[in-house]
Amino acid sequence: MSAEAAEEKVDAAEPEENRHWETKDGEQWVVLACVPLVVRGNYFSPGIENKIKAAKAPRATRLVVHRSIAPRTKTIYDHPYVAGADCHGRLLLYATLGYELKPSLVLDAFYSKPAPPFDHRGVPEAYFICDTRTHKSTRLNDHGFHNFHPGNAGLASLTEDMYVVADLNPGVGTDRASLLIYSSGSGNWEEHMVDYPPHHRPWGSNGVVVHQTIIWWVDLSYGLLACDLRIEPHNLRFVPLPEGCEMPPSTPDLDRRRCVGFRGGDLRYMQIHERVFDGKPIVSMWTLIDQDAGTWRHDCEVLVKDIWDDKGYKATKLPREVPTAALIHPEHPGDVAYFFLHSRLFGVDLAARRVLEWQFFQMLHPPSAYHSSRFVRAWKRSISSANDDTGPPMTVNIALPGTTS
């Protein structure tokens, strides 16, 4: 089959599954790679400070920024990171500033050799709002705290033009935390001292998810902290993970096995783990049904072997290996989750044990060995901001027929 014919087949197959990436009001969900592409020189036209290289989901959509925002060579411990996104085209970007770790002539270099975890201590850090509608990148005022952790910062839109950034700084060995809130209206940070329900347990800082004006801080070993920014005084409400999912603090690589996300207004949790009685790998998904009581509904549990046995999985030519967690589908009515394996991103209807689609995922940084739920997020782009460079498909996307195996 010629390349042209193959492309025609792809285009004909896409609408059935890809319609779930579109909202009822015509807006599109994209899969955003959280480490942006950094460019130099005259890549941008005058007056342009950022750009979106958009692609139809589940292909990778990427933010592009100038190296003046993120000058340092990327490492797995030190890289610019999209910590938040809203539905009005704004992205919250964290970056370290100053000198490069190892000057490189390579565009957008990634230093893949082992590097000290804290080699960037003492280097200035900053948050930026990258408005992809105006293509302007604005550095937020420093909030005065030494602790910048992009896994504790979230972005919530109040209106099309107004937003807030919330940065949580739990105290060490205390039951209090500093909640720092930046308002686009005032252009300043305000500190709010709040009770810290986990008390003396250190927070895992595995990211932030937002629904309307409620911000949820995620610790994949323990639970979630929620704060409704409309209610003052601000307070944190703790919601534990489903029963049996708690892990010791600082358990490594949980973002490779677990993820949290919203489908509509439902907060969902997915994990890859071992079945208790025989140790076989399984995937489970839950939905939070009572925030106050911390009650979760167990939606499904599927053997990874059943996914391997699906004819859709066999069509990917992937080996029978346990994949890495990526994200939960934000719109699909079923129990649909996405996984990484060998540079591919594939979606599975867990209840049906069926692979829906797969894609070579062009996330250049970090290298594929590090791909996990930490490095991708579902982002609903507003119609007004969806005018960037989409370009031709960069990789082949095959949506499989809707037959069960």
TrEMBL record:
Q: Which residues form the DUF1618 domain?
A: 217-330
Q: Please provide an example of a Pfam family that matches this protein in its UniProt record.
A: DUF1618
Source organism, top-level taxon: Eukaryota
Protein name (database record): DUF1618 domain-containing protein
Q: Write down the InterPro entries for this protein, in alphabetical order.
A: DUF1618 (IPR011676)
Q: Where is this region: Disordered?
A: 1-20
